[in-house]
Amino acid sequence: MRPIVLIAVVLLGALLVVSCDRGSTGTPGTGETPAVEPIRSRADIDKELAASIDTTGSMEARAWLNPANAKHVLWKTWDKPEARKQVDALYTAGAKRVVAIDPVEVNGARVVAQFVVELPDAPDARTKVFEWIKNFESEIEDEDPTKDVGQKFYEINLDL
Question: 155 Cβ partners below 8 Å, 6+ apart?
């Protein structure tokens, strides 16, 4: 066997050993198991979103997007006119409430990247809101679309 081929085979073997060692452990070479996030129930997610609505700085979406609030800005995806259009569409579909959550101060502006939609109880309105959700998620290429499983809230994440 030629020396260059032998060196290549040895290096490839070493690379395979290192990559296998890293495949399922927490810290390479330690044998530690990585931390796995527990599966959250729908009730837990609803509880977290309900709490986010009540945090300091969260505000009803139309008020947040009011042109008079020039220091309120959005992160990525939508500009203010598009966001107002989408929020109006959600209210027209039957959303109980849409809230801008978790604002962050950046260079004197207040930036949000998420909105929480409080979903309606009425079946017809839920169908319309979930149609909006389906369209939104298809635009962001979400591979696992949100289904109506009786949840109380839906989170719009603009940090894409």
Answer: 49, 114, 115, 116, 117
For residues 100 and 93, the answer to whether their CB atoms sit within 8 Å is no
Contact between 96 and 126 under an 8 Å Cβ cutoff? The reply is no
53-98 pLDDT per residue, tens: 877 788 999 999 999 988 998 887 788 999 999 999 999 999 999 9
Q: Where are the alpha helices (DSSP H) in 25-148?
A: 42-53, 61-64, 80-93, 123-139
Whole-model pTM?
0.71
Enumerate residues 6+ apart whose C-beta is below 8 A from 64.
Answer: 72, 100, 112
Q: Determine the Cα–Cα distance for residues 99 and 111; give it in Å rounded to an integer.
A: 13
